[in-house]
Specification:
Length: 368
């Protein structure tokens, strides 16, 4: 997630969960290509972050391919193409993000080029449609075309469509309704392809319910950022079935502080500020007693602290020891929803090759 899942947040996430797959923010292919002498800034990550997926964005096949080649040196575990971002800023760069869904042939060619430039699996993250191009058939045609033109066998499905009418990216993650039935339709109609469910998953229990109903994987976005400890903290035990280290928040912060201050000690260009390094920590005490006071103290401390160690020393007294030292135990909180009505909502079965071509938007020309 842009500006959120940077190296620092991912480091925190990895301290909390050893097994969750981590995704980078979208990195624009042109940035990687044009800044190739400075590529560490955009592509480097600590080895502990594996398994990690690089998400790239763009609409120029040569640049997507070159960017992938340059990223090879960093040993990402998967390369993902963004076909879901509705931002006008990104869309204005050309046929980019969610707009690419209107041009499945192009995405198929792009994925083929990306796959040829690396030796790891490749994947696509997309919406279930764009504007009026929101039928299940069109979504299937998109998947079908990419699968037939490239080795892509993994799609992450943000289960709401994108509206390219100028509403904000935040509204685009809230206003179009979630249609999980499209996701479950894809599971039924493309048994050879892996689909990860995304959108509106706020509980780890919900992940397990989805997996129980056949989901191959679930991507959690905002909930992991907004409440990292009690979302990511359950992943290893409840999803992967591995006994986790069960760190207290104080222990998580101690580990993160060692990382953060080591970054500050390095004399590198674009060295982050203490504020940037503290940002991922700000939701660690979501809904806990003392959180409000701690946030106010954090605000004041960030005006003068030169290290994350001093920041923590100055602020953690605002939180009760019971909050700092307790560990997650037992099962994650129950999700009170279900996917039980999916059977009745499932769209008609897709049969490859029998569907009419749908009209592509004008951006088709821009992408070739
Ligand atoms: C601040 C922010 C930045 C995001 N940046 C990206 C991005 O760079 N690439 C991407 O594929 N999705 C991005 N997303 C969308 C999320 O990955 C996800 O698809 C969306 O939030 C729905 O999932 P959720 O309900 O679990 O948050 C972003 C979301 C937010 C809130």
């Amino acid at each position: 997630m842009m500006d959120w899942t940077d190296n620092h947040f991912r480091t925190l996430a990895r301290i909390i969960s050893k097994y969750a797959w981590l995704y980078t923010e979208m990195v624009v292919a042109e940035t990687i290509v044009h800044q190739k002498d400075n590529s560490d800034r955009f592509l480097a990550f600590p080895a502990e972050q594996h398994p990690i997926v690089l998400q790239i964005g763009g609409s120029n096949v040569d640049n997507l391919s070159k960017a992938t080649e340059l990223a090879t040196a960093y040993s990402y575990d998967e390369i993902n193409l963004n076909c879901g971002c509705p931002s006008g800023r990104v869309a204005g760069h050309g046929c980019f993000g969610a707009r690419l869904m209107l041009d499945p042939e192009f995405v198929g060619d792009a994925m083929s080029a990306i796959a040829a430039s690396c030796s790891v699996p490749v994947s696509v993250k997309c919406r279930i449609g764009v504007d009026d191009h929101d039928s299940y058939e069109e979504l299937c045609k998109f998947v079908d075309t990419i699968v037939s033109k490239s080795p892509t066998r993994h799609f992450i499905i943000h289960s709401r469509k994108a509206l390219l009418n100028g509403i904000s990216p935040a509204a685009n993650r809230r206003i179009p309704p979630l249609k999980y039935e499209y996701y479950f339709g894809l599971l039924r109609d493309f048994p050879e392809v892996q689909f990860t469910l995304n959108g509106g998953v706020n509980f780890i229990d919900q992940v397990n319910v989805a997996m129980g109903q056949g989901a191959h994987g679930v991507m959690v976005g905002r909930a992991a950022y907004n409440n990292p400890w009690s979302t990511l903290g359950y992943v290893d035990s409840a999803v992967y079935g591995v006994k986790s280290d069960s760190l207290s928040r104080r222990q998580v912060l101690e580990k993160y502080q060692i990382y953060a201050d080591s970054v500050l000690e390095k004399d590198t260009p674009h060295r982050p500020s203490v504020r940037q390094l503290v940002k991922p920590l700000l939701n660690m005490f979501h809904s806990e007693p003392g959180n409000g006071l701690w946030k106010r103290e954090a605000d004041a401390a960030l005006r003068h602290c030169k290290t994350v160690k001093s920041f923590l020393e100055e602020t953690l007294d605002a939180l009760p020891d019971s909050v700092l030292d307790s560990q997650l135990s037992g099962d994650p909180p129950k999700w009170d929803g279900n996917f039980d009505n999916m059977e009745t909502l499932l769209p008609p079965k897709y049969t490859a090759g029998t569907k009419d071509e749908f009209k592509l938007h004008a951006c088709l020309a821009m992408s070739t």
